[in-house]
């Protein structure tokens, strides 16, 4: 998918979300919150659902939890406009109650389609409800700061999932805040590992099956968490390095995963500051 196609796909999903009436949460919302970020990013952060400020502004993580998320990203030298940020449910549950299973189920196609469009290398879950979508059965106290393969049924074709505590939990509990800084320090290395696996899969598609060559060495049981958590490696992993196939032809030694669609659209050059939904 080119930059322009990905951007258009994300905009189309956001338009549907803003008009959505698939679950009861549409009745109490002020604004739906589809998500925002860099359309070419390799990293998607997934929270639980909009809160008061997010509902007011129609943007994810813009209250106190959002301020902490920005600080956590800053601690690894990342910015929020380099990643994509969204939620499991796109409309605010009244009084910030937990989203109910039927609401999560009704909203699930939007997140799946966002992940299909973004094709991230890494999904970072924020809190229990988001983790539950990507690491079924895991406990946040065990899984935080660990990585595992994402089920392609989530919409993410070939991604790893890394679990963080929810920033709102970190705001309430100093020990969780400390753990969150340790955990986020492991995110760039998780991105690099996933990126390396995807690059190998592009050269030899059979190497992609299963994602286990990266995980097996450190994985005790299928689907179990890798070790160690929160290790800050000296890596310079930026979340946006994906070349646009429209402007950067793929090198002949790395065949593209599928042939480029003949597109009637004239591709626009990639603007490194290009992002959706912020303005
Ligand atoms: N908490 C969330 O889970 N998501 C937001 O967008 C804001 C706060
Ligand atoms: Fe639609 Fe999701 Fe909002 Fe429910 S939470 S109304 S499914 S966008």
Question: In words, what does this structure look like?
Answer:
The chain is of the alpha/beta class and 279 residues long. It has a single domain (3-218), classed as 3-Layer(aba) Sandwich (Uracil-DNA Glycosylase, subunit E). Helices cover 38% and strands 9% of the residues. It has 11 helices and 6 strands. A 6-stranded mixed sheet has the order 1-3-2-4-6-5, with helices on both faces. The two termini are 24 Å apart. Mean pLDDT is 85; it is low at 210-234 and 251-275. The chain binds uracil and iron/sulfur cluster.
Essential attributes:
279 residues, alpha/beta, 9% strand, binds iron/sulfur cluster, Uracil-DNA Glycosylase, subunit E, binds uracil, 6 strands, 6-stranded mixed sheet
Strand content: 5-15%
Largest sheet: 6 strands, mixed
What compounds are bound to the protein?
uracil, iron/sulfur cluster
Number-wise, the strands total 6
Mean pLDDT: 85
- From the 3D coordinates, which CATH architecture would you assign? 3-Layer(aba) Sandwich
- The parts where pLDDT drops under 50 for at least 5 residues are 210-234, 251-275
The helix/strand series, from N terminus to C terminus, equals HHEEHHEHEHHEEHHHH
**Outline:** globular
Q: What is the level 1 CATH name? A: Alpha Beta
* Largest sheet, spatial ordering of strands: 1-3-2-4-6-5
- What structural class do the secondary elements suggest? alpha/beta
CATH topology: Uracil-DNA Glycosylase, subunit E
Radius of gyration: 18 Å
The domain tally reads 1
**Helical stretch tally:** 11
């Amino acid at each position: 998918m080119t930059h322009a196609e990905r951007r258009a796909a994300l905009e189309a999903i956001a338009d549907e979300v803003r008009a959505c009436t698939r679950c009861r949460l549409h009745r109490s919302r002020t604004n739906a919150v589809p998500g925002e970020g860099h359309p070419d990013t390799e990293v998607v952060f997934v929270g639980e659902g909009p809160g008061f400020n997010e509902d007011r502004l129609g943007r994810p993580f813009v209250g106190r939890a959002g301020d902490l998320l920005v600080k956590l990203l800053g601690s690894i030298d990342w910015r929020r406009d380099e990643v994509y940020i969204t939620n499991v449910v796109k409309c605010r549950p009244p009084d910030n109650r937990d989203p109910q299973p039927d609401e999560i189920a009704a909203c699930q196609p939007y997140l799946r389609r966002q992940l299909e469009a973004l094709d991230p290398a890494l999904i970072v879950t924020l809190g229990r409800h988001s983790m539950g979508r990507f690491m079924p059965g895991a406990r946040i106290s065990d899984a935080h700061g660990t990585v595992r393969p994402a089920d392609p049924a989530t919409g993410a074709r070939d991604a790893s999932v890394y679990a963080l505590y929810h920033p709102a939990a970190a705001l309430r509990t100093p020990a969780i805040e400390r753990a969150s800084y340790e955990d986020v320090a492991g995110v760039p290395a998780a991105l690099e590992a996933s990126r390396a696996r995807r690059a190998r899969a592009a050269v030899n598609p059979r190497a992609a099956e299963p994602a286990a060559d990266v995980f097996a060495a450190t994985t005790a049981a299928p689907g179990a968490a890798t070790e160690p958590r929160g290790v800050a490696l000296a890596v310079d992993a930026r979340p946006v390095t994906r070349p646009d196939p429209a402007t950067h032809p793929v090198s002949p030694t790395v065949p593209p995963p599928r042939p480029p669609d003949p597109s009637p659209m004239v591709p626009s050059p990639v603007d490194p500051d290009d992002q959706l939904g912020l303005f």
